Amino acid sequence: MQDDQELVVLVQRGHKEAYTRIVDKYKGKIYAYLYRMIGQQQDAQDMAQDVFLKAYCHIHQYKPEHSFSSWLYRIAANHCIDELRKRKKAPRKNQNETTLVDKQTPEYILLEKERNQILQSHLLALDESYRTVLMLRHHEHFSYKEIGDILEIPVTTVQMRLHLPDLL
């Protein structure tokens, strides 16, 4: 499989099928990140589409000296922050969402759903700047430096935001 840099060059030269490969590679990760940040499946899907559209439209602004995944996550993080700011200004809508049931026992599904709801409610209660850093570090497994690059903040700020929630 081609690496990200080669695919980006192909996309920049007009090969749209190369961008399809990029989307296929990152769509699950970007969706999962957005879902953990927003807490709504449909909204996360819509936002993921927006992120990939923005990335495609701005692919010529990508600088190859940076990691492509960091650049893509920066777009996702910025888009997510913009959406969260809009939501703060708009009236709240019902955040309950039904989840499709897998072939597991009803008890397991119920416990897992409750656990996820509790975790999600705690994550959503955090300020978006702390939540973003937590998601990028613990769910996406980015290094402190990569998180700093994605969010365009110093590594020391990343470290502080990762450790400060322990004190809250």
Write the layout of secondary structure elements.
Blueprint: H1 4-12, H2 16-38, H3 41-57, H4 68-89, H5 106-125, H6 128-139, H7 144-151, H8 155-163
Keywords: Sigma factor, Transcription, Transcription regulation
Organism: Brevibacillus halotolerans
Protein name: Sigma-70 family RNA polymerase sigma factor
Give structural notes.
- The chain is an all-alpha fold and 168 residues long.
- 71% of the residues lie in helices and 0% in strands.
- The protein contains eight helices and no strands.
- The chain is globular, with a radius of gyration of 17 Å.
- The termini are far apart.
What is the average of the pLDDT values?
A: 84
**Beta-strand proportion:** under 5%
The dominant shape is globular
Low-confidence stretches: none
Write down the Rg: 17 Å
**SSE order in H/E notation?**
HHHHHHHH
Family: Belongs to the sigma-70 factor family. ECF subfamily.
Domain RNA polymerase sigma factor 70 region 4 type: 119-163
Protein name: Sigma-70 family RNA polymerase sigma factor
Pfam families: Sigma70_r2, Sigma70_r4_2
